[in-house]
Amino acid sequence: MREILLHHFKKYPQMEIEDFIKLLYQSFFKGEHLFTDKEASLKMLEEEINSLDYELPFFIYEDIGFDTIRLNLSAVKANNLPLEEINEWFIKSFTKKRPVKDFKKSLRLLLSLIEKQEIKLDYQTSKEFITNYLKKVKPLSHSTKYKEKYNPHYRIIDKNIMPSYMKDLQFRNYIKNFKQGNRFNIIALDGKAASGKSTITKNLREHNVTIIHMDDFFLPKSLQTKKQLNTLGGNIDIDALKDVLSRLSQNQEIMFQAFNCKTQKYFEKREFVHSLVIIEGVFSYLEDFRRFYKRLIYLDINKQEQKKRLINRNKKLYPKFKKIWLPMEEKYFSKENIILKADLII
């Protein structure tokens, strides 16, 4: 939750203490304080949508932690998404009341971030606000400053209820902004194993986007020593990818030696370079590569779904993933604060 709080502070620097508490309340309790009458809920949604000016926002939804998202109603309107379906997600997202003690623990985390000035609010004022709030835990409204600055209009949705096509919509909506004109941009698409990175980029080549996969830069098994694998991105040929990244903006076509993990052999690969290039895969946002990127997109997945997908992908290989690769990824994501550095979380 630390990364989510800091991510929102980075994105919305005018947030006040009540905005952070509201975010935590929503992530823990979702929309349980609202009525669940389907017709009344739909009517309210329609009225709010109709009151909004048309705009094409930078994001469709944003992660607020604990498998919960805020679905941007401006994006719903701009993309003409079906309101009846969205209302269903909203109603189904209501959950049984979670322990208030866990929510209080998250408030202590928030306060510690303020005390360390990782979130730049006045500590004493924030402490007093939280102390008074805990006398009666209840939903809060956004601060006046937040409303004026960011004009929030959204619905709280459980990410597990939201259909998979919304991730694709979020991704494609975001990269549209980088295909305007002929400006050259490279974007990193990082995220946990089995989160859908390869799937989400599958058909982008048809839309004049160059996709380069981190798998092409894996090291052969003979070079994957214990010492090497103990370093961040130790399974990646860092120099080879840095060379490709440095040549990308200079050529309409690029050739490099890609590695095939199954055959453990190299092969020649050619890529036509479009104005938008996406480097897809875990470790794509290692410090060695960051100077080449315009943005970072992070794909998330909960542990239960990740385990299910990895077992379905290759049951025999899962123990190795669990013992070696997943701990390597977690170390990288944690040490490098990848979620915090992300411009978009999907």
Description:
The chain has 346 residues and is an alpha/beta fold. It folds into 2 domains: 2-158, no CATH class; 181-345, Rossmann fold, CATH 3.40.50. The chain contains 15 helices and 10 strands. It has helices at residues 2-11, 17-29, 38-51, 73-78, 83-92, 100-115, 123-133, 144-150, 165-176, 197-200, 226-229, 238-248, 303-313, 318-335, 338-341, and strands at 61-65, 68-72, 154-158, 185-191, 209-213, 253-260, 265-272, 276-280, 295-299, 344-345. The chain has a 5-stranded parallel beta sheet with strand order 5-8-4-9-10. The protein has a 3-stranded antiparallel beta sheet with strand order 1-2-3. The chain has a two-stranded antiparallel sheet with strand order 6-7. Strand 6 (253-260) and strand 7 (265-272) form a beta hairpin. It is globular, with a radius of gyration of 22 Å. The relative contact order is 0.13. The mean pLDDT is 91.
